[in-house]
Amino acid sequence: MSQSPLTAIYAGSFDPMTHGHLDVVRRASQLFPRLIVAVGRHPSRNPLFDVEERLEFLKAVCLEIPKVEVASFDGLLVNFAKSSGASVIVRGLRVGGDFEYELSLAQANADLADELDTIFLPTRTGYGFISASLVRDIARHGGDVSRYAPPAVCAALEHKFTS
Q1: In this predicted model, what pLDDT tens digit does every residue of 37-81 receive, in sequence order?
Q2: What are the CA-CA distances from residue 155 to residues 16, 24, 51, 94 (Å)?
Q3: What three-state secondary structure class fits 77?
Q4: Would you say residue 159 has pLDDT above 60?
């Protein structure tokens, strides 16, 4: 499939999806006519939710956002981007440390596939401290995560930690 400057991919583990992720999806969907939100499969990680569960959360939450598709992929993001016809990778930035890490990934991706560009979307002020690991930890200890994650995710976290 050939690249299109109008297709972007926002990839992550989304374990679980947070309001910060959702903010990036909404904003990126306004910048591109086609946005693929993709869950990466990482065999070396031990996620709380399996890929199918994360895909279901994303589909439910992104249903109301036009131009958004949900998918999963194995292997390198650049290979998935090429096979999907994307020319842009979208990455969200929460804090300064994210920039250093994300910049090194963007540079490696550009080295592997120079036809792909990466754009960074900084989170809105209210989402800067929210991370999937923070949401998991709060939920694991019985805390209310409704301010940090969509309702479907909150319900799944509650079920996961009370079962």
Answers
A1: 999 998 777 899 999 999 999 999 999 899 999 999 999 999 999
A2: 11, 22, 17, 25
A3: helix
A4: yes
Cis peptide before 16 (omega within 30 of 0): yes
d(CA 106, CA 91): 9
> DSSP labels for 12-24?
E--TT--HHHHHH
* Of 4 and 9, more confident: 9
- The pLDDT of residue 42 is 81
By the 8 A CB rule, do 15 and 58 touch?
Answer: no
Tokens at residue 115, please?
A: 């036809």
| Model pLDDT for residues 100-120, shown as the tens digit of each residue | 899 999 999 999 999 999 999
Helix (H, G, I), strand (E, B) or coil at 142: coil
CATH topology of domain 4-128: Rossmann fold (3.40.50)
CA dist., res. 86 & res. 77, Å (int): 11
Q: How would you class 132 by CB atoms within 10 Å of its CB: exposed for 0-12, middle for 13-18, buried for 19 or more?
A: buried
